Amino acid sequence: MAPRPHYPDTVHYRGLNRPTHIEATAHDLYVEGEIPRDIDGAFFRAVHDPAYVPMRDDDVVLSRDGMIGKVEFRDGRVNCAIRYVQTERFLAEQKAGRGLFGRYRNPFTDDPSVAGVDRTVANTTPYYHAGRLFMSKEDGLPYRVDPTSLKTLGRWNYGGTLRSLTLTAHPKIDPDTGELFLFGYEADGLASPTIAYCIISPQGELVSEQWFDAPYCAMMHDFAITKDHAIFTVYPTKADLLRLKEGGPHWIHDPEGESFIGIMPRHGEVTEMVWFKGPPGVHSYHVMNAWSEGSKVHLDQCMASTNLIPFIASDSGIAGPPQGGLTRWTMDLADPGAGITERPLGPFGEMPLIAHADTGKDYRRGWYLTVDPARMTHLANGPGDFAFNLLVRVGFPDGALSFYGEGAGYSFNEPVLVPAVDPDHGGWLLMMVDRVIAPGYIAQEVWILDADDIERGPVAKVEMPFRTCGQVHGTWVPRHLLDQARGD
Ligand code: V55
Ligand code: FE
Question: Which domains are present in the chain?
Answer without folding.
Answer: 11-482 (2.120.10.30)
